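User: Hey, my collaborator sent me this sequence without any context and asked if I could get a structure. I don't really work with proteins. Can you help?
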Amino acid sequence: MRVDLNSDLGESFGRYTLGMDSEIIPLITSANVACGFHASDPTVMHKTIEAAKAAGIRVGAHPGYPDLMGFGRRNMVVSDDEAYDYTLYQIGALDAFLKAQGMKLQHVKPHGAFYNMAAKDPAMSEAICKAIKDYDPELIVMALPSGELCKAAKAMGLRAAAEVFADRAYEEDGTLVNRKKPGAMITDENEALNRVIRMVKEQKVTAITGKDIDITVDSICVHGDGVKALEFVRKLREGLTKDGIEIKPLAEFL
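Assistant: No problem. I've predicted the 3D structure and written it out in structure-token form, which is a compact way to encode the shape of the chain:
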């Protein structure tokens, strides 16, 4: 069994620092780097790519809505053409820094509301995947395994990585519980570890309602800005390895 371990990084902006990127990067295999719309700026992108290269980890673009104030977590009404343009623009921006460092972009994972809305919107998902395919058909699309984005990627012949979250609760349809709801965040690292091990080995997770649902796992996300992000990642690595689950970047097994 093999699995990727990813985190959303490069989300600082100007003089404002967010997350624990330098501590998280050595513990993961793939980084989803913000591209300047929901967070980040050119200098942050540059430094994050340099840190990823030094650690030998793979990098993906993390495009979001143009919503710095809301950190890309507020739903926006955009056309499918705009979703395409937002995705293409942000991939290109981040990839410039990768090319300058002699690195190759591994994947694309939409951020926040962009990610969650695409999971339920077939037309938006198709627009996002079209932008990805038009830019580079070798890119991997990281998405919820039960969502429309994952379906759209496969329909277009793109590689799709089924992503699960160590620190988030699930609805019965496989979507993430809204952060505003009680119980949306898993704050106990031992509970998170047990849930993840079960997701990988049994392809099951208990939804917030108490019902077990099917789930597929290629990559596990731990948010780098979480209060217990470091504990989560360290315990996940230790627990996964102990259970005989190999931790590798997506490009090495998808």
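In plain terms: The radius of gyration is 17 Å. You can pass these tokens on to your collaborator as they are.
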